[in-house]
Amino acid sequence: NYAALIQQQINEDKQNLREKTVYGIQLTEEKLNDFRDEQIGQLKELMDEATKPNKKITISKDSEHKT
């Protein structure tokens, strides 16, 4: 179960306090070749979103609607 694997890796990371943890499993070239082009595109989009620098969103009172 993939969710259980991720949970186990998160728990191990908390215990070991590693600097950089890699979650999930490595996909072999053979497995990647079995993916459809659409799936590869989705993985790329997911990777792009997951590796974006953290952006803080601030909401000021000036942005509230005034009547």
UniProtKB/TrEMBL annotation:
Assembly and binders: Interacts with the iron-sulfur protein subunit within the SDH catalytic dimer.
Gene Ontology process terms (BP): mitochondrial respiratory chain complex II assembly; succinate metabolic process
Annotated localization: Mitochondrion matrix
Keywords from the named record: Chaperone, Mitochondrion, Transit peptide
Protein name: Succinate dehydrogenase assembly factor 3
Role, per record: Plays an essential role in the assembly of succinate dehydrogenase (SDH), an enzyme complex (also referred to as respiratory complex II) that is a component of both the tricarboxylic acid (TCA) cycle and the mitochondrial electron transport chain, and which couples the oxidation of succinate to fumarate with the reduction of ubiquinone (coenzyme Q) to ubiquinol. Promotes maturation of the iron-sulfur protein subunit of the SDH catalytic dimer, protecting it from the deleterious effects of oxidants. May act together with SDHAF1.
UniProt-listed InterPro entries: SDHAF3/Sdh7 (IPR008381)
Main location: mitochondrion
TM segment ranges: none
Gene Ontology CC, one term: mitochondrial intermembrane space
Record's signal peptide: none
Key word Mitochondrion present: yes
